[in-house]
Amino acid sequence: MNINNKNRENLMKNITDQIKEAQVKLGYAKETMRFYYPVSSLNEILGTDYPDEKIMAKDLNANEEMKNTVLGELKFETHGGRIEISVPPKGVEYVWQNVEASMFLLDLINLFKSHHHCELSDITKIFHKYSDNFQCEKMPEGMDFDYVIYFTESGIDEYYYCIKMEMGHTIYHRFTREDYEMMFV
Predict the structure, then answer these.
(1) Domain end: 97, 128, 147, which one?
(2) Are residues 89 and 108 in the same domain?
């Protein structure tokens, strides 16, 4: 299957964003990093319509453009119905040296690091610092998360932050808009 440059760049940005988020949270280590994507998520990012993970992994491993990325040669394997993308140490190091985390992400992660049970008002204060154009919505009862917060204008941060407050801890998980809509809407 042919993947156009824009969609390939979307995948590289998504992987780079995840690497940088992990580096902000945990620090840098020159090692292979692995990320796990449902086939539906990768189909959305890549503009493809693979029916299952085996065919997708085989085609992605055969795609020459995926072997010569700024992150090095990515490897695609199947893992529990998902696609495991392995980024070599060269790519992890590239992100560490060349990609800066946004001030928003740094502030948000620092909040969660320093306040294990932060309040919703603490989290929205970080969003307000960067823009008043964001949504904070209570999620329906029975969902895995209590709230979703996201910016409504482009350029600040494109992710949807799902918040869970439980047993004295507050956690977040971030999703692309498309993944959020597939899972929760």
Answers:
(1) 97
(2) no
Of the candidates 86, 117, 109, the one whose C-alpha atom is nearest the C-alpha of residue 22 is: 109
pTM score of the predicted model: 0.93
Q: Over the chain (185 residues), what is each successive 10-residue block's mean pLDDT?
A: 87 97 96 97 94 95 88 95 97 97 97 93 98 96 95 92 94 95 89
CA geometry: angle 111, 116, 118, nearest 5 deg = 60
Helix (H, G, I), strand (E, B) or coil at 1: coil
| Residue range(s) defining the domain that contains residue 75 | 5-97
Comparing CA positions, the residue from 173, 174, 172 lying closest to residue 117 is: 172
CA-closest candidate to residue 145, choices 123, 119, 171: 171
Do both 125 and 108 map to the same domain?
A: yes
The sign one gets for the Cα dihedral 33, 38, 42, 44 is negative
